[in-house]
Specification:
Layout (H helix, E strand, L loop, with lengths): L2 E5 L14 H21 L6 E6 L9 H7 L2 E8 L28 E8 L1
Helix pairs in contact: 1-2
């Protein structure tokens, strides 16, 4: 079983303020840590955890590879996210407000694939 999370955008989050604030970054990192902690408990022997995430600033400051390592996971592969490989995929904003169904440009993203260490 593979477990996937997509974190392409959380722009405009009404809970954390501006994306580049250290408080927002730490809050988002804590969310990813929690996801990884729970996902690794469900991972089968040869399973993988995939996280797709923006790689430009300030999103690059989340340190996805380091978060995985901190949870005892090994980065198997990192590849450029290609939206065309996911027909029918529609990205959503993470804020949950009136604009949560609005489209936003995906931009530069990578998919991080982790396995058990």
């Amino acid at each position: 079983m593979n477990i996937t999370a997509t974190s392409l955008d959380s722009e405009g989050s009404r809970f954390f303020g501006r994306e580049l604030s250290s408080r927002a970054i730490e809050s988002h990192k804590e969310l990813v840590r929690g996801f990884l902690e729970n996902a690794k408990e469900m991972l089968e022997e040869d399973g993988e955890i995939h996280i797709t995430h923006k790689t430009t600033y300030p999103f690059s400051d989340w340190g996805i590879k380091k978060l995985g390592k901190g949870e005892g996971l090994k980065l198997l592969k990192k590849s450029k996210f290609e939206l065309s490989h996911y027909p029918g995929y529609i990205n959503k904003r993470g804020s949950g407000g009136r604009r949560s169904d609005d489209y936003f440009p995906v931009g530069e993203c990578s998919t991080y694939m982790f396995t058990q260490s």
